[in-house]
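Ticket #4471: structure output looks truncated?

Reporter: J.K.
Steps to reproduce: submitted the chain below (441 residues) through the standard prediction queue, then opened the result file.
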Amino acid sequence: MSLSLIPFKYFSDVQICIPKLYKDNISWFSITPQFTTLRVNVLKYSPEEIAEKIRNNLSEEATKNGFTTIPEVFVHGTIKDCIIIGSWKKSVYHDLEINGEVIIDVSCGNAVLRGADIFAPGVLALSNNVREGDAVNIYVDIKGTCRRGSIKLTCDDKLLIGNGIVKINRKTIFENNAKLNGIAIEVKFRASRVPSINFSPSYGILQNFPSIICSYVLEPSMNLTLLDMCASPGNKTSHLATIMKNKGTVIALDKTSKKVDKILSLCRQLELFNILAFAWDSTKAVLNELNENKKLTDGPPFNKNSFDRILLDAPCSALGNRPNLYNKITFKQLQSYSRLQKQLLHNAVELLKPGGILVYSTCTVTIEENEAIVLWALQKYSNLKLVKALPYFGSPGLIESGLSDEQRSCVQRYSMSTGNSPETDTVGFFIAKFVKSLNVM
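Returned output as attached by the reporter:
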């Protein structure tokens, strides 16, 4: 069996909202980045030590399957806690004897193409005759027409993305609507050729390259108090705490207790102890009147001018999350995000100390949620200054955004660009960095 990743063209009807650059290259959204990035828990491990463990694991897999080469694995030359893992060569695939097929949902398909196995909740249908240990072809139900548990393996539009080995039989997955979380299909071949990276959770976390950069742009240090306004799932929160070497204070907010529990669980896993997490809506995080007895450790809401650094990784349309085999976001949903982003940014400005740093980021590509928010903030808040978002690996803001050339050079946009490197072949992302004037206005 030989597959190659084709340029999928499934996208929603909101193409009017994306810049011309993307309209002319719409398949970019559904093509998998060829580099995987692992952020190492440097408080416990050496990045080169973990890189060598990954090389050894991939070498074992290559030997087992008769491969002659393994994906490249190396520590990033500048971002020293970041390991880069490349993809298998085009000629590498598993030639299995296929006994059936499995149909999975789009979100599961996206994850598989990024290196994940198939967990039971993502399975929509599985051939009736297959047993544990059998090999199956993996199809994605692109438009969501396959009914979960269906015996008929048909849907309006299904796409072959790989093959794998059945680990949980059909009866166990679907009987009495069983709620299982285990691996149902171990993926042996992906059309994306992205490897599956197996490692101990204490080593670190898989995190997109621009997301790793985002934490460095905020300039965290050990004697500061930081706020992560929309912290779930805690990847950036934990990175900030790690850079601060478990010193200072990182306060993480998210709206639901369940999400906060996940943040705290990740912190325990990485042995981070300088993080306080609260279930709170960040649009309501500012006290209207000064309360001199209020301590940050008491939790939100907070007094104005309370934090040295604030990260606002804002809720967004997430159009930059690649691959996305089918996107059905509506125009109305897209329009709603900028209003929320402005409200959150307003609170961030209120909570930031004079002289403090605010980083605004999204994982989307629209001008309305990125450069337009920056322009709005600069026009509304005379005490905000846009500065260069260093370290700088992205591209300048878009010309049609309304920002000046100098302003465009300060922000960094990760998007379609020439070259095949970990810095260019990434998810879509946007980062802007502000400094609040010492003269409070």
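Triage note (M.O.): checked the attachment and the full token line is present. The longest strand covers residues 352-362.
Status: closed, working as intended.
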